[in-house]
Sequence to fold (567 residues):
Amino acid sequence: MLSKLKLSILIGSFLILAALPMVAESEMIDEPFYIDLMARVMIFSIAAMSLDFILGYGAMISFGHALYLGLGTYAVGIMAHYELTNGWMQLLVCISGTAFIAFILGLISLRTSGIYFIMITFALAQMFYFLGISLEAFGGDDGLPIDTRSEFFSFFDLNETWNMYYLILGTLVVTALVLWKIINSRFGMVVRGSHSNDARMQAIGFPTFKYRLAAFVIAGVVCGLAGFLLGNLTEFLTPEYMHWFRSGELMIMVMVGGMGTLFGPLFGAFAYLMMEDFLANFTEYWQFYFGPILILLVLFAKQGLWGMLPGKEDISDE
Amino acid sequence: MSEPLLKVEQLCKSFGGVVATDNLDFDVMPGEIHAVIGPNGAGKTTFVAQIAGMLKSDSGSITFDGNDIAGKTAPERSHMGLARSFQITSVFKNFTALENVALSIQAHAGHSFKFWKRASGDKTLIEPAQKILDDVGLGDKALNLAGNLAHGQQRQLEIAMALATSPKMLLLDEPTAGMGTEESEIMRKFLNDLKGDYSMLLIEHDMDTVFSLADRVTVLVYGRGIATGTPEEIRNNAEVRSAYLGEDE
Fold:
């Protein structure tokens, strides 16, 4: 169970995000750029949360999770390329496509564990990255502009900055809520149990493989949704989102935010992207400075930023 | 005499050149406690893992409750009524004692593709779990994290989790491992109370426990059963004394 304080911080953060466009566009601040930046942060928050769902709760250390981010952008981009701009249809393709690929890749990779799982998810994602590069029809490694954003309702034009922003915020809030419910459901208990001791779970009668596979697919689909939003926001499709470097970034966001805390990665994504933005102002080699910060966090704050926030978390969930 | 509940015939398992289980015949009658003793490396844990389905046997048959279970997975065997406890305490340390037992009950309450309702608020899981904890004397520890319980209590919780699967038979891998004299005594009483309600295959190092609880004892040396009999017979068996108990005893 979340402590009241942590819950308030979370709700407060969502409220701040909800108010941000108005503040950013107000005459006093007048920095509409922040809207775009925070939209990006929220998209990566969704992706990082989905990774934490399997990494933090299910001990499935996927080193290829950004693949689904890329697949989501490809779903939007390819369909838009063929002038299929109906948002619902795109969403359906995105969800079923990422679910299918996650299912197949899960079938393969979940037979392994530990370092082998890390390596196999890494390798499989890289396969898709190189596939993306070789797809000349969709711009190869240069990528492809997405001319039209998804069309949902005539009164809800995604070309309006605010609409885009609030769609992303809405998705973030719903995703956070749904994943939280799942983690505490019977299904979630099985995934968490197999995290700490898979053999024991089997001994008490759980065929854990299919539950882990289902969790893997859920995480893939959620990350695919983030990709769907990312494609719409950036209006650009590129294999670069599937690169392992991006997967690594997602892992860092999870670690910085706090593994196995679900909401921590929201702050992890925020911190990481802000740090990137901030440090990159001073030096091209911003990662050089980011590295030590990361090491300190991993060494001294086991639950990352989430653990450092006030409000003691009752791990036992009541 | 009725049919044995568990019947193992000509069971074999080797790891590379090392024979861990060597043409082993073994059975447990309904309600009986059959203990397996043997020096370190005798293949006791391998044997339990084979019966529980964690390890695939090279050859031989395992019949449980009239069914051939050699090809069944560990979860399937659990659903047939075989419950295993582990030599190394393996309760879920980040869950409360109550959640640990509730998880066992959940495993036997239909599929778990239920994504919405909070599991820890689910009365159909929590109430029977609390009852089992009360039965084993851990009732007042229900809301403690399992990892914070004393070692002996964790071992008891371990068995409570096995009991929560409503088994026909318990596979107990060294229930008193790592326990002091006092804790062992409590565990012995606890198992004695269960005696008669469940059949048990008891792997044990502690001779007091074996000789006070077991109806029959099998001595395992290098994966081979060298003797089977009542505790009295085993105590007086010359071969056992030289192989295991030590001539000077």
